[in-house]
Design goal:
The protein contains six helices and three strands.
Length: 275
């Protein structure tokens, strides 16, 4: 039936995927007059109304609908995690709430800018530093930097923040990632999740216990690397050279693997791995 009301401030009861909400006609129609919600309650369309308590049913996930109502009431974008913003954005697009869509995208863009400002050094700073004989970035925040194609051999990255650093085709031979072994690349218990190592030279690196979940190691030179106990779930290792690598106890669930000549796989979890 078509929705009719004698007052724009009258209460509207909604059932969004099983979650119940109460609001007013004004809230649903005024801030975003060109939205699907405004159109639904314009009186021009037939909508499904439950007979018992008069709730209007909408077949969508109601998890974030309170944020949608708060946006329509106050015009405020809620502070959420990126994954939650993605879910809210999907709902905002469904309801054609263009103002909310733009607000979410602006919030995500500002967050990315703030994270970049939080990085203590730039790529140019790194290039200047690596011209020295002994380079240390111990405990430095390098998150999000593009360090691709640089010669980073023997550089000390111990305890640095390397979240989503782009190491594609960089030379990391004998680099240090923790103050343990001066002769090998040390990633012991390091968190390198989602880092980009495409084509990087990590020959002889020690990545024991490292979190490399979803990291991209495609085409990387991993000859003789130690991945003992490392988390390599869903890691991209296709065409990476793992000759003589030690993968004992590593979690390789869902990883894409090739070139395993001589690699040690004792106790490794290979469930769903592509070989």
């Amino acid at each position: 039936m078509a929705y009719h009301s004698d007052s724009s401030s009258s209460m509207v009861r909604l059932n969004i995927g099983g979650r119940k909400f109460c609001t007013t006609l004004d809230t649903l129609t005024q801030r975003e007059p060109d939205s699907m919600l405004a159109a639904m309650f314009s009186g021009r369309h037939t909508i499904c109304q439950e007979s018992e308590k008069g709730h209007i049913f909408v077949d969508r996930d109601g998890k974030h609908f309170r944020h949608i109502l708060n946006w329509l009431r106050d015009g405020v974008i809620p502070p959420l995690k990126d994954s939650e913003y993605a879910q809210l954005l999907r709902e905002a697009e469904y309801y054609q709430l263009l103002g909310l869509v733009d607000g979410i995208k602006s919030a995500l863009s500002k967050r990315k800018e703030d994270e970049e400002l939080g990085t203590e050094l730039t790529r140019i700073d790194i290039i200047k530093c690596i011209q020295s004989d002994r380079v240390r970035f111990r405990g430095i925040n390098l998150s999000g930097l593009d360090l691709s194609k640089l010669d980073l051999s023997f550089v000390d990255f111990s305890y640095a923040c390397l979240k989503t650093v782009f190491f594609s085709r960089a030379n990391l031979q004998c680099a240090k990632f923790r103050d343990v072994d001066a002769e090998a690349s040390i990633f012991h218990n390091a968190t390198l999740r989602e880092c980009e190592f495409t084509g990087a030279n990590l020959r002889g690196a020690v990545l024991a216990g490292a979190n490399l979940q979803s990291a991209n190691l495609q085409d990387a030179c991993l000859i003789g690397c130690s991945f003992c106990g490392a988390d390599l779930r869903s890691a991209h290792l296709q065409t990476a050279d793992l000759t003589n690598a030690n993968l004992e106890g590593a979690n390789l669930e869902g990883a894409n693997l090739k070139h395993l000549e001589g690699a040690k796989l004792d106790g490794a979890n290979l469930l769903g791995a592509i070989r």
